[in-house]
Amino acid sequence: MTISLNGERTDAHDAETVADLVDRLQLPPHTILIEHNGTALHRHEWPQRPLREGDQIEFLRVVAGG
């Protein structure tokens, strides 16, 4: 399945949910925010949010500074 990930078309690696995608890309969940088709998601929503052909996913990395 092909999705848009941060503005670039990419293979979703057979991920069925947003949580699967995070896991397959080996991203640390506590350091990212996710927008799915224009909607910001809470982390507890990731496992229930299915991915479909053409979905738009944006990963935003959270960093602390000072």
Report on this structure.
With 66 residues, the chain is mainly beta. It has one domain (2-61): Beta-grasp domain (Ubiquitin-like (UB roll), Roll), CATH 3.10.20.30. It has one helix and five strands; from the N terminus they run ββαβββ. The chain has one helix at 18-24, and strands spanning 2-5, 8-11, 32-36, 39-41, 56-61. It has a five-stranded mixed beta sheet with strand order 2-1-5-3-4, with no helix packed on it. The longest helix is centred in the N-terminal third of the chain and has 7 residues, at 18-24. The radius of gyration is 11 Å and the shape is globular. It starts with a strand and ends in a 5-residue tail after the last strand. The model has no long low-confidence stretch (mean pLDDT 94).
Quick summary:
The chain is 11% helix and 33% strand.
Task: For this entry, give a set of tags.
66 residues, mainly beta, Ubiquitin-like (UB roll), 5-stranded mixed β-sheet
